[in-house]
Recover the amino acids of this structure.
């Protein structure tokens, strides 16, 4: 895993992916818990996250959790520029930021 981001602007992307680390794999890991039981059962999670995302403790159900996971996967895949370090180095050897266009300003943490 490695996080690619720009020092000149706010552009960043999710960590690089591999066979064991990618949005779909993470969803698969949570799926057993999400699919055991009633879809309308309330899920107990961090209340600050609920508040920041417009939910109350009473309306965040297993069904909503699955939809949020799928929405997050959609956004991660949609915004992913380079899946792997190798793809990044091959397609962007100058380190040109997709956000601001500056070169040599991208960093991998
Ligand atoms: Zn930038």
């Amino acid at each position: 895993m490695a996080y690619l981001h720009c020092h000149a602007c706010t552009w960043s992307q999710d960590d690089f992916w591999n066979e064991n680390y990618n949005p779909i794999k993470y969803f698969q890991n949570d799926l057993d818990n999400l699919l055991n039981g009633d879809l309308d059962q309330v899920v107990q999670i961090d209340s600050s996250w609920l508040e920041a995302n417009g939910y109350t403790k009473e309306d965040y159900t297993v069904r909503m959790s699955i939809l949020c996971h799928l929405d997050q996967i959609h956004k991660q895949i949609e915004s992913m520029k380079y899946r792997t370090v190798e793809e990044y180095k091959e397609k962007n050897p100058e380190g040109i930021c997709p956000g601001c266009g500056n070169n040599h300003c991208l960093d991998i943490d």
User: Anything to note?
Assistant: Residues 23-79 form one domain.
